[in-house]
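// run 5 | inverse folding | seed 20
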């Protein structure tokens, strides 16, 4: 398979470097997601209470386990930048591929904007704690996005190596906080017996909590975007993705356990930084500082990974002429999709400047959810068109088609949950993607060269 793209000079063809290993894939997936353990997940508590949030944590954990299993098989077989977009291009068709590519770009760009907002708010809170009130957050938002974009511009190896270090630190901070709460002596620090109550809004509240349960794991599928830059896709993608999913399941469970044992659900459901608040309640200054740094690092790691993934999805759309081919350029020295990285900076900053954190997060969640719904259909068609042993697969996930069916059912439940709380946002986002589809069909598709899209050396699909 040719993985080349036109460079800035026009005629020369260059490729991205294959320099990543499973640890980088883990850092990309977990780095994007771990900020959800530090904030955001707790809004599920406001919807369904503490127990409702725990149910959402495990149910959505099952959803993302299905995502990780499906991604590991298909991406290790279709190893190219663009991840799910490239899968849709080969397995379903151009219109689906365009939409999936757009889902990816919007999901990661919105999440990047939310992360930058969080960094700005954290800097403001830190300044106020030191006696500097009234700090403007916007310069920190711009500085965060600009610095991380520059890092991504300079090379993927350095970018994801940094992500590995700061993500590991943030995960370590959660483990330290868990140990400080003296979990072997229930009641000494954690007061679950006093704080946990029945479901305050019944099972409809549990269903509503599924929307923010996504925040525990949203973005793990981003590991697919690095498929073209790993040394061995068949090894690195499954190991990094499934290892990352296991890490997140542990982190999510520990986070819920700590916070639900220290704060009543009424407060926890509206807290901005629940893990940091938990550290403050313990009264240990060193742990409090550790959690402040961990929260900051988690937001930076998430934004860093989002820039990486959004740029590669946009680059892939440009390379295949779904968007102007100008975006399909690779830097001749750094071997990065530099034009796509630069192009998406003002878009992320613009959304961050709105300050509408909940709306930005909802846009990101729904864009990701649309992508997951596609994946369930894509997996069934992939196995049907190219049965086992008809093509070489880097990894084969077990129990097919149960994960695909489970994923589709759980996605449907989350759509309903989102409609309960953000019905207008759901309808407006769906309208946006319908309009985009019409634009692609009637205006952009004429520039697409169908024969150039299919780069996998596969036999004719079964039944065609």
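// decoded
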């Amino acid at each position: 398979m040719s993985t080349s793209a036109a460079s800035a000079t026009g005629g020369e063809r260059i490729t991205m470097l294959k320099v990543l290993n499973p640890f980088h894939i883990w850092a990309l997936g977990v780095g994007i997601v771990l900020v959800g353990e530090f904030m955001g997940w707790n809004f599920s508590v406001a919807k369904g209470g503490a127990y409702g949030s725990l149910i959402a944590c495990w149910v959505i954990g099952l959803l993302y386990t299905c995502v990780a299993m499906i991604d590991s098989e298909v991406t290790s077989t279709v190893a190219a930048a663009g991840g799910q977009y490239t899968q849709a291009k080969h397995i379903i068709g151009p219109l689906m591929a365009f939409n999936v590519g757009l889902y990816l770009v919007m999901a990661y760009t919105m999440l990047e904007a939310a992360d930058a907002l969080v960094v700005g708010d954290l800097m403001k809170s830190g300044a106020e704690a030191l006696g500097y009130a009234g700090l403007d957050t916007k310069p920190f938002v711009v500085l965060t996005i600009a610095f991380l974009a520059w890092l991504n511009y300079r090379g993927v190896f350095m970018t994801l190596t940094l992500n590995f270090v700061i993500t590991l630190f943030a995960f370590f901070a959660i483990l330290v906080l868990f140990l400080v709460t003296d979990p072997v002596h229930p009641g000494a620090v954690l007061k679950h017996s006093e704080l946990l109550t029945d479901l305050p809004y019944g099972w409809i509240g549990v269903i509503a909590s599924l929307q923010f349960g996504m925040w525990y794991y949203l973005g793990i599928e981003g590991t697919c975007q690095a498929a073209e830059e790993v040394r061995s896709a068949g090894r690195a993608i499954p190991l990094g993705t499934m290892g990352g999913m296991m890490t997140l399941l542990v982190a999510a469970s520990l986070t819920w356990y700590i916070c639900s044992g220290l704060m009543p659900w009424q407060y926890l459901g509206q807290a901005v930084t629940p893990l940091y608040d938990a550290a403050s309640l313990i009264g240990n200054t060193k742990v409090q500082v550790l959690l402040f740094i961990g929260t900051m690092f988690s937001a930076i790691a998430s934004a860093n990974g989002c820039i990486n993934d959004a740029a590669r999805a946009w680059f892939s759309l440009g390379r295949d002429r779904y968007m102007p081919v100008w975006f399909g350029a690779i830097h001749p020295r750094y071997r990065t999709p530099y034009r796509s990285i630069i192009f998406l900076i003002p878009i992320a900053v613009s959304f961050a400047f709105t300050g509408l954190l909940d709306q930005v997060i909802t846009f990101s969640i729904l864009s990701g959810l649309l992508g997951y719904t596609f994946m369930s259909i894509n997996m069934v068609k992939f196995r049907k068109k190219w049965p086992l042993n008809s093509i070489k697969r880097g990894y084969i996930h077990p129990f097919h088609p149960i994960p695909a069916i489970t994923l589709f059912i759980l996605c449907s439940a989350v759509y309903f949950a989102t409609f309960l709380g953000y019905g207008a946002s759901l309808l407006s986002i769906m309208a946006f993607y319908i309009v985009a589809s019409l634009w692609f069909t009637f205006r952009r598709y004429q520039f697409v060269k169908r024969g150039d899209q299919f780069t996998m050396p596969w036999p004719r699909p079964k039944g065609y």
